[in-house]
Amino acid sequence: MGWFADKYGKDTHPKMSIDTYDKLLDMFGEEAANETLADVQDGKIQEETILKYLDD
Q: pTM, whole model, 2 decimals?
C-alpha cells in the first residue's frame, strides 16, 4: 500500500483490519476499498459500522 504510507507516513498502522479491507476489495474493488480505508483512518467512519452493513 504505497499510497497509504505516502498519505499517513511509514510508521502509521491502518485502523481497519486487513480482513475488512479484503472483504471490501472482493466486493467493490480496489478504489472503494482504498477510499473506505482512508475514511476509517481519517475518523469519518468506524470499521464496526462498515461490518454491520456488510454482514446484513
A: 0.89
